[in-house]
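Q: Can I see a sequence and its folded structure?
A: Here is a first one.
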Amino acid sequence: MGKIIKDNATIEVHAIKTNSSKEVEQFRNYTNSEYHERVKDTYRENHINQTVEFVEKMEREVCSLRKTKMSLWEALDVLDEVVDESDPDTNMVQTMHLLQTGEAIRKDWPGEEYDWFHLTGFLHDVGKLLVHKKFYSLPQWAVVGDTFPVGCKFSKKNVFPEFAEENPDSHNALYNSKYGMYPPNCGLDNVKMSFGHDEYFYQVCVQNGCKLPIQALYIIRYHSFYGWHHRGAYNHLTNEQDRENLKWVKEFQKYDLYSKDDGNVIDAKSVKL
């Protein structure tokens, strides 16, 4: 996947803090947030439609990367018109979210040796451009929201687990057991995740020879896998490499989540310069 950072085993963990007026406990409110109905509807469609068949179709049609070519800043211009309808915390456009995440990491992790971490914060959600009419025009449920393994039993530690009962794979004996179609501890590299912006942009990185380290690629690929990194689900599918890189995904998650602040507007032009 990429080069390994030698001090990975001794990562310095920073305390959780927010950059907004909300307390930590107020984030990821899937009960009665300001955007609750929008979020609930997005997850309903996601959990019903994210099947093994659908994921394999997206792998063929989208992850082949045959649609177009664009620069990073052209992609960010597209993201300036994208709002994540699965997010209960904010209604900001995704370009601002990327700027806030990257800047929050840069402040806590100064120094050139962590440039890759700053850049990962700035890039991690670029794949959400899949929803835009200038690109694939995919429905939000196929791009945003928490991800989870398909082809095995859906964990109740995922958000809105009740909607998974309507997914046809939940009634398929090949896919509805604990391990489903996977051997124990096969490693996440061998697991098909529900399709979304994580997997898409991971494929963009690896298919274009990206030089980001393995820790960055784990963050890009699994930052939305909250059932795993936030709630400890699906550990029976992970291997040693997954467990080693989990610490970086968990560290990143704090900045991805708690940097959201509708009142903190960052000037994209000044960052670009």
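Q: Show me another, different protein.
A: A second, unrelated one:
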Amino acid sequence: MAAIKQSLALSQKNLRAYQWVETTTVSYKGEQKSFKQESCYYGADGALQKLPIASSPPPKKKGGLRGKIAESKQELTDTMRQAVALVKSYIPPDPALIQRAADTGKASVEVLEPNRIVFRDYRLPGDALGIALDLANNRLTGLNVATYLGRPSNAVDMSATMGSLADGTTYTATTQLAVKNAQVVVTVADSGYRRMGGT
């Protein structure tokens, strides 16, 4: 537990020296509906800054039957936004929430996967955060989340693959979130990491 928290804290601190590109793609029923690329870095105040690079155009407003279809698409867009926000609330894992789950007896080591720890009721009642570990290097290699949007029947599955920079800093390379009832899939990929100032 201490190693996980230490690895998370060190990587979050080290990432403040980097700039990278975040690409978010949202698909509905297998068809890409939106695309957004942003340049990301931490500002002097410690807050994550995002500058738009590219994105798909916003949908046009229509009247009549087309307007009603557009309204249902707006609901879909709202679901997509909520799904993206949900991704960001779990990744990177919060050391304080990990500790809370451990303190309340809701952390367990998977028997079939000994290098995986599951934290139940991590952020929401009934959710679960699974962390896969590289024990030799004390770093995260992947994450799995079972959670929901709004109510437990609106199930959401999320998986993330972690990457490692030359200095050993761990970052979230790719994240995929699926909102089952809405047939929405959100994919977030972080790439092009470089130290600020071009070094």
